[in-house]
Design a protein that fits this description.
This protein has 26 helices and 19 strands. It is α/β, with parallel strands linked by helices. Helix 6 packs across helix 9 (193-199), helix 7 (171-180) crosses helix 8 and helix 11 packs across helix 14 (306-324). Bound molecules: NADPH dihydro-nicotinamide-adenine-dinucleotide phosphate (NDP), pyruvic acid and magnesium ion (MG). Residues 333-334, 356-357 line the site of magnesium ion (MG). InterPro entries: Aminoacid_DH-like_N_sf, Malic_enzyme_CS, Malic_N_dom, Malic_N_dom_sf, Malic_NAD-bd, Malic_OxRdtase, NAD(P)-bd_dom_sf. The active site is at 190 (proton donor), 261 (proton acceptor). GO terms for molecular function: malate dehydrogenase (decarboxylating) (NADP+) activity; metal ion binding; NAD binding.
């Protein structure tokens, strides 16, 4: 750490291609500072010794000349800090610039740009005169205008592209837009539209977002991480693109998912955007359409498996820890289940990892079930559950329900699991299939004759709760919903699969086929439905309710590992926030409009659990964790530049 005119810098903060700092400018004002450098000098591309030299020389420059550091390499001019003079003509040098972001470059820097909201004073002090029209507008008016513009687009994908453009142009405007209009814009930057965006990512690709780590970078991942412009990373969302929503293998184009999830980390959970890092690991794709698509942006090869995959991933995980420390949260997202469970098990003891599809989904569905009990009565253990889909989401949810039942009743986990039944693509999971089942399905194999069709399983098992986690759209048919409604006064139906095209049924189908009796929630949002003169609003059972607050809780407590009890704490925190007014509308989740408050409450409960379990490192524990969580949350309000 060193100090330059009162501002602090870490040694790392100057490495890489472009860095944004704040320090006094040549005119003695504090403003948005950009440090830019190609790190190469007197050596081969990517030679980090050079950036260390530069860092050290910067470090020294605040206090004393730097000759000692550079003596051995300097043969040129006095104070040849960056080696320009010492380089012979056939050597490359470092084109360093160190300047306050001002004028044209300030307007094009998304972290600092305010567009027409720059004040008169800022326009004077930052060389913006003439580069902007005369009007000065406030943040609220900018949001109003952007919302007007966005609403002109009828095609959701156009709105998505417009939102990404705003994110790349003016970050604080993007987050204020999203936070002030969360219910309207969530379906654009997140499911369902993000799914279509990933499918067409190559065609709509403008500026790269996030970090792409492909097999080409094997052996160099540490270097690649250093190319990212921020050093203080708190949350990474990483995918390998093999199971993007319910849309299958989208390879490198899955990048839309980490980007979207991290937008939610900031907008919904208050994590600073600069602390968020979206990453796609590109090991190829088995999607023939993409391999044959001339606009595809990823490696044009079939997926690496086995040792090749494991080695790349291992290098990635340890490079992350080396660069960002023990407490960086790594969220695994949209991996295929044959990797997802193994990665979680493998790195769960050495890193702070969280699988959103297995754990986040489990926590959000358990919260919805806890809330549903207020409407249908009974305890969790008195209900019977049937899942269509026994993958990451399905078995993850099932395990958390069984765990909660066991905690509530004292009945062993092996017994509570017997209240939960699952179907996969081959039918009901029963003991006679045990030998051929993947390991994560085995706990759910119970004694029953084989059943192929869902409707027959419904008739035989008579579940009170039906959960769709199959990724297969329209599988909750009229026959299935009607069968469920024959023996349930209020059948509970979760159609979790995303995007909307993959939803097991629509809200309209759930209400009309159950004659308005269903308690329904879905992974992607549905508009309210009118049935027999009554309006039914359905909730969105999506892990977006959980992961932003959950991550915030881990960060504010300095947690070093994720524990199942934290997931249960998050479920309780979410369920507690469903109001009587929500219940009266049939909602089992609170509206997203209050999500910042909801996230703060979830964060507080998760952090409290981390302290209780001895997994927190931020000591002493804050007295009021909700207030502390709120105080840590990012605000997109513009900052004044002196
Ligand atoms: N709402 C939310 O917050 C979340 C929603 N999801 C959604 O859940 C879906 C599944 O995700 P995930 O669990 O990770 O996927 P997986 O691939 O791990 O699991 C899918 C499961 O569904 C089964 N399946 C597929 N098609 C059918 C079918 N026609 N009939 C019966 N079973 C079928 C598969 O069977 P088999 O094993 O035999 O192949 C498998 O067991 C996705 O659409 C995803 O978007 C996921 C996470 C969060
Ligand atoms: C919501 C989510 O994480 C999924 O559909 O994969
Ligand atoms: Mg997911």
């Amino acid at each position: 750490m060193f100090s330059l005119n009162g501002s602090s810098f870490t040694n790392n903060s100057l490495s890489g291609v472009s860095r944004c700092l704040t320090q006094s400018s040549r005119r003695g004002v504090s403003g948005p500072m950009v440090v830019a450098a190609a790190v190469n000098s007197n050596g081969k591309p990517g030679d980090r010794n050079v950036s260390v030299l530069v860092e050290n020389s910067m470090k020294e420059s605040a206090a004393a000349p730097v000759e000692k550091e550079i003596k051995s390499t300097v043969t040129g001019g006095v104070g040849d800090v960056y080696g320009e003079d010492s380089a012979t003509e056939d050597q490359s040098i470092t084109p360093w610039t160190l300047s306050v972001a001002s004028g044209y470059s300030l307007l094009r820097n998304p972290h600092y740009n305010k567009g027409l909201a720059f004040s008169e004073k800022e326009r004077d002090s930052h060389y913006l005169r003439g580069l902007l029209p005369p009007v000065v507008v406030n943040h609220d008016l900018q949001v109003k205008k952007m919302m007007n513009n966005l609403r002109q687009y009828e095609v959701p994908l156009q709105r998505y592209i417009a939102m990404m453009d705003i994110q790349e142009m003016n970050e604080r405007l993007y987050y204020k837009l999203l936070m002030d209009n969360v219910e309207e814009l969530l379906p654009i930057v997140y499911t369902p539209t993000v799914g279509e965006a990933c499918q067409k990512y190559g065609s709509i690709f403008r500026r790269p977002q996030g970090l792409f780590i492909s097999l080409k970078e094997k052996g160099k991942i540490n270097e690649v991480l250093k190319n990212w412009p921020e050093r203080k990373i708190q949350v990474i969302v990483v995918t390998d693109g093999e199971r993007i929503l319910g849309l299958g293998d989208l390879g490198c184009q899955g990048m839309g998912i980490p980007v979207g999830k991290l937008s939610l980390y900031t907008a919904l959970g208050g994590i600073r955007p600069s602390a968020c890092l979206p990453i796609t690991i590109d090991v190829g794709t088995n999607n023939e359409d993409l391999l044959n698509d001339e606009f595809y942006i990823g490696l044009r090869q079939r997926r690496a498996r086995g040792q090749e995959y494991a080695e790349l991933f291992d290098e990635f995980m340890y490079a992350v820890k080396q660069n960002y420390g023990e407490k960086v949260l790594i969220q695994f997202e949209d991996f295929a289940n044959h990797n997802a469970f193994d990665l979680l098990a493998k790195y769960g003891t050495s890193h702070l990892v969280f699988n959103d599809d297995i754990q986040g989904t489990a926590s959000v569905v358990l919260a919805g079930l806890m809330a549903s009990l207020q409407l249908v009565g009974g305890t969790l253990a008195e209900h019977t559950f049937l899942f269509l889909g026994a993958g990451e989401a399905g078995t993850g949810i099932a395990e958390l329900i069984a765990l909660e039942m066991s905690k509530q009743t004292g009945i062993p986990l092996e017994e509570t699991r017997k209240k939960i039944w699952m179907l996969d693509s081959k039918g009901l999971i029963v003991n006679s299939r045990m030998e051929s089942l993947q390991h994560f399905k085995r706990p759910w194999a119970h004694e029953h004759e084989p059943v192929k069709e869902l409707v027959n399983a419904v008739k035989s098992i008579k579940p009170t709760v039906l959960i769709g986690s199959s990724g297969a759209g329209r599988t909750f048919t009229k026959e299935v919903v009607q069968a469920l409604a024959t023996f349930n006064e209020k059948p509970i139906i979760f159609a979790l699969s995303n995007p909307t095209s993959q939803s097991e049924c629509t809200a309209e189908e759930a209400y009309s086929w159950s004659e308005g009796r269903a308690i329904f929630a879905s992974g992607s949002p549905f508009a309210p439905v009118e049935y027999n003169g009554k309006v039914y609003a359905s909730g969105q059972a999506n892990n977006a309710y959980i992961f932003p607050g959950f991550g915030l809780g881990l960060i504010i407590s300095g947690a070093i590992r994720v524990h199942d009890d934290m997931l249960l704490a998050a479920s309780e925190a979410l369920a507690e926030q469903v109001s009587q007014e929500n219940f009266e509308k049939g909602l089992i989740y609170p509206p997203f409009t209050n999500i910042r408050k909801i996230s703060a409450n979830i964060a507080a409960k998760v952090a409290a659990k981390a302290y209780e379990l001895g997994l927190a490192t931020r000591l002493p524990e804050p007295a009021n964790l909700v207030a502390y969580a709120e105080s840590c949350m990012y605000s997109p309000a513009y900052r004044s530049y002196r």
